[in-house]
Design brief:
Layout lengths: L1 H9 L18 H6 L14 H9 L5 E7 L6 H10 L5 E5 L17 E4 L2 H11 L3 E4 L6 E2 L9 E5 L8 H6 L2 E4 L11 H16 L6
Parallel strand pairs: 1-2, 1-6, 2-3, 4-6, 4-7, 5-7
Helix pairs in contact: 4-7
C-alpha cells in the first residue's frame, strides 16, 4: 500500500477530481474522471484544451515572435515553449513549414503558430498588423537589447542556429538588437537568445515597476 502511495505521488499533475464535480463547460469530463497529468498551471487543471486557449487569448501580450527556418532549425520547439510561457501573441515560422515539435513539450497546442513561406510574406503581414520588426542578431550596427527602447507592440525576429538572420530579413527589420556576450564564442543558442529577449520584453512591459 505504501509503495502504491509513493508511485501516485511521483506522477505529474493531479488525480481524479475529489468530491462533487464542477458543471462548468470549461472542464473536461475525462480529466475530471481520470486525473489531469498535463504540464499546465493550477489555474487550468482539468480544463479542456480549447477552453485554455480561449482564456489565454484574453491575456496574451502584444508582442509576437518569429524565426527563420531554412535549414529545419531544431530550436523552434524550445522557442514555442518559451513564447507560451511568456504569453506571446503568436509564433511566426518563416521558411520551411516542418519543425521538430518535441522541444515544444506540447505547448504548440496552446500557442498560435503561423507559417510564412518567405520573408516577403512575413514582412507584408507584419506591416498590415502595424507590428514593427525587431531583428535579433549580433552583427555590425546592432544595439544592445538592454538599452533599446523596446516597442510594446512588436515582433521579435530570430535567425536560425549558425547562419543567423538572412540579409533579406535584416534589411526588412525596423530595428536590430544584439545580446552582449563576453566569452569566446561568437553566438549563443537560438533558443536561449529568444528566451533572453522575450524576457527583456516582459521586464519592460509586463512586470510591475521596481521601486
Amino acid at each position: 500500500m505504501q509503495a502504491e502511495d509513493e508511485t501516485e505521488r511521483e506522477l505529474p499533475g493531479v488525480g481524479p477530481w475529489p468530491g462533487e464535480r464542477p458543471v462548468d463547460d470549461r472542464y473536461d469530463p475525462e480529466l475530471l474522471e481520470h486525473g489531469d497529468r498535463r504540464n499546465v498551471v493550477d489555474r487550468y487543471r482539468y480544463w479542456r484544451m480549447a477552453a485554455i486557449v480561449a482564456d489565454l487569448d484574453l491575456r496574451r501580450h502584444p508582442f509576437a515572435v518569429a524565426i527563420e527556418n531554412w535549414q529545419h532549425d531544431m530550436n523552434i520547439g524550445s522557442i514555442v515553449r518559451t513564447a507560451n510561457a511568456f504569453a506571446a501573441d503568436a509564433v511566426h515560422i518563416v521558411g520551411r513549414r516542418r519543425w521538430n515539435r518535441r522541444g515544444a513539450m506540447v505547448t504548440d497546442r496552446y500557442q498560435h503558430v503561423v507559417h510564412h513561406p518567405e520573408v516577403a510574406h512575413f514582412v507584408a503581414v507584419m506591416r498590415e498588423e502595424g507590428r514593427p520588426i525587431v531583428a535579433v542578431d549580433n552583427v555590425e550596427g546592432a544595439v544592445p537589447v538592454e538599452s533599446f527602447a523596446m516597442p510594446e507592440r512588436c515582433v521579435l525576429l530570430f535567425g536560425q542556429e549558425g547562419p543567423g538572420l538572412s540579409e533579406e530579413a535584416r534589411a526588412a527589420a525596423d530595428a536590430l538588437v544584439e545580446i552582449p556576450q563576453f566569452g569566446s564564442t561568437r553566438s549563443i543558442n537560438a533558443g536561449a537568445a529568444a528566451a533572453i529577449v522575450m524576457h527583456e520584453w516582459i521586464r519592460r512591459w509586463a512586470l510591475p515597476p521596481q521601486p
